Amino acid sequence: MIRGDSVPGTESGGNAQPGQGLSFVGAGCIHTYMSRPRRYLPGGMAFHVLNRGVNRRTLFSSDRDYEAFGFDVLETLRTRPMRICGFCIMPNHWHMVLWPENDGDVSSFVHHLTSLHALRWKRRHDEVGLGPLYQGRFRAFPIQTDHHFLTVVRYVERNPLRANLVDRAESWAWSSLGQGASGVCLPISCWPTPNAREANPAAWVACVNAPQTAAEVDSLRRCSKRGSPYGDDSWTGVTATRLGLESTMRQPGRQRKQAS
Questions:
Q1: Segments of the chain scoring below 50 in pLDDT
Q2: For residues 210 and 170, what is the distance between their CA atoms, to the nearest angstrom?
Q3: Contact assessment for residue 154 and residue 176, using Cβ atoms and an 8 Å cutoff
Q4: Burial of 6 from C-beta contacts in 10 A (0-12 / 13-18 / 19+)
Q5: pTM of the complete model
Q6: What integer pLDDT is reported at residue 29 of this predicted model?
Q7: Which residues share a beta bridge with 141?
Q8: Which of 42, 169, 226, 232 has its CA 20 to 30 A from that of 31?
Q9: pLDDT value, residue 182
């Protein structure tokens, strides 16, 4: 049995207010450490969410590790409801496709889940006080709810096949596609688009197992790394402006100066 543990309700200690920095006084000077900008993850919009172990360390090395994470998800859902449209738990990271109902739900859900998981994982592996488990703040990017949404769910469920962990994607027990074979089943929500998986399960499984193009995979990885919207050009432009993600749409590197 997995024992319940309390989880801190705030992301940082001290008395700093949201949006303010923390100050350190020493050697006659004051250093101010500014907090990271708050992300706007509105309700009603679908998101791909990912987090991985610090320095890509292994998080899940046994069935018990995978099952414990599943129980952590179920416990988090009791107090922080979330529509999970798809997921995949890999040895050193996990993916989820989330469709929140309200603004702020994604951050609340993921922060509580990762805090609870890290706390219990550290106790189970006798690593309390030995540094962080996760690399840092989770990554997230918004998804246009048309065929782009299906592409993202397919990408997520295809992860173990792409990593050569299984011969068929549905053979991986720790994903929304193959979880019927595991000891813990997470509730899978309806989709914001027509649900291809429910409409024709066999066709969906065949689609997930079919190769994705390199361009498609590169595009999704770029969105995950930078947090930029995934969709057609018109939608991504409007969404980037709405969510304050314009910087994620720029090409990396120094911009060339226009000739005068």
A1: 1-35, 260
A2: 12
A3: no
A4: exposed
A5: 0.82
A6: 40
A7: 48
A8: 226
A9: 67
Output the pLDDT for position 63. Answer: 93
Q: Are 35 and 20 in contact (CB under 8 A)?
A: yes
Looking at residue 256, its pLDDT comes to 55
Measured at the CA of 246, the angle between CA 245 and CA 251, to 5 degrees, comes to 115
SS in 3 state form for the chain?
A: CCCCCCCCCCCCCCCCCCCCCEEEEECCEEEEECCCCCCCCCCCCEEEEEEEEHHHCCCCCCHHHHHHHHHHHHHHHHHCCCCEEEEEECCCEEEEEECCCCCCHHHHHHHHHHHHHHHHHHHHCCCCCCCCCECCCCEEEEECCCHHHHHHHHHHHCHHHHCCCCCCHHHCCCECCCHHHCCCCCCCCCCCCCCHHHHCHHHHHHHHHCCCCHHHHHHHHHHHHHCCCECCHHHHHHHHHHHCCHHHHCCCCCCCCCCC
**Residue bearing tokens 């989709």:** 191
* Amino acid of residue 151: T
The pLDDT value recorded for residue 3 is: 39
Residue type at 197 in one-letter notation: R
Give the chain's domains with CATH numbers.
40-228 (3.30.70.1290)
Residue listed under structure tokens 């911009």: 255
And the tokens for 192?
């914001």
Per the document, the length of the chain is 260
The pLDDT value given to residue 196 = 85
